[in-house]
TrEMBL record:
It comes from Nonomuraea salmonea. It comes from the Bacteria. Keywords: DNA-binding, Transcription, Transcription regulation. Residues 14-111 form the HTH hxlR-type domain. This is Winged helix-turn-helix transcriptional regulator. PANTHER family: HTH-TYPE TRANSCRIPTIONAL REGULATOR YODB, TRANSCRIPTIONAL REGULATOR, MARR FAMILY.
Amino acid sequence: MREPLDPEMFDPVCPSEVMPIRVGDKWGGMIIQCLEEGPRRFSELMVPLRTVTPKVLTKSLRALERDGFVVRTERAGPRHVEYALTPLGRSLLDLLDAARAWAETHMDALLDAREAAQ
């Protein structure tokens, strides 16, 4: 049995839209991070991604599936669908970790530059 996803795994005040490196869309990198420990159901993904709408999460998952990063598997039974990383998706984990570390180090400069440009 997998551990449940931590509802606080993404800081709600972290402005993910300032992340200079993205996979797919605003939510792609966070979805990939949620799938790092193994397959997850849609409802499990909604826990830490609490501000995403179901419609947008569906769109993001489909885009990640189209790009070969995620695989969608339907299990027998009543609507049991899981999403998991493919080897290609798993290959992004180190890159995303490096991008996240870089953004944490440079977040103030990024925010200052964007504010100055307005």
